[in-house]
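Before relying on records like the one below, remember that each one covers exactly one chain. Contacts with other chains, cofactors or solvent are not represented anywhere in the record.
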Amino acid sequence: MDIYGSALVTGASRGIGRAVALELAARGFDTVATMRDPAAGSGMADETTGRLEVRRLDVTDRTTFDLPDDLRVLVNNAGVDTEYLPVEHADIGDWRRMFETNVFGTVALTSAAIPTLRDNRPSVVCTVTSSSIIASVPFFSAYRASKAAASAFCDSLRVEVAPFGIRVVEIMPGPVDTDMFRLSTGDMDATRFPRYRALADTAGELRRAHADPRVVDPAAAASAIVDAIVDESGPMRYGCDPVSHELIDLWRQSDDETVFALTGQSLLDQVAAEADGRTGV
């Protein structure tokens, strides 16, 4: 992809979004870093030698949508999460809030951007989902469901806009060192429910042993993401860290039951083995 015109990134106040906006600017795009509170990005223009502007944009409020006339890259990164709870104890209000941003906001902004992206083709819609949708991760049902919906949205959008010269890219991060990642570390929220404590404890231990030590810096993830954006010959789905690369490879090489056996079932087997060890069975 030739680099000219504008790129717009949502949720760019911190984490992956901020790093991607800075990387796009460094690569040569006129970059618009958007966020609900522009004060959070007040120093971003000084962090790059490229051209970067900070604007207010809330994906749940169409009145804040202000797209550059030369827009060629839209990065749907804005997202929220909530407590990671058993479905039995789910707060449906939290689910609705999450879908409002992670799904409906993504759809609304992309819909508004398509005419401009079509006029400036070749162009790209890049949506950040999560590699957690591949694995049977307990207590992540709300977050995974919202990201899986966004992933399915990418599948259909890819077919619809291909004739217009718009390419669709989905980024499926694993552990990246962001505020959201750090808030999800430690004991899982589900440990406060006795019936789910053993499963939550084991899931937390496995994460600390196998995922957390492999966390990558946002700048490294952003470099991989922008590589995917400009790679016209690549697939739709990309990882941006070692864990996500492995999960995507597993997904592409296996059927659903194999993926479950290697993720969800192996976790359940470990919980059962630990329970047997405690009871002496």
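The beta strands are 6-9, 30-35, 52-56, 71-76, 123-128, 166-171, 237-238.
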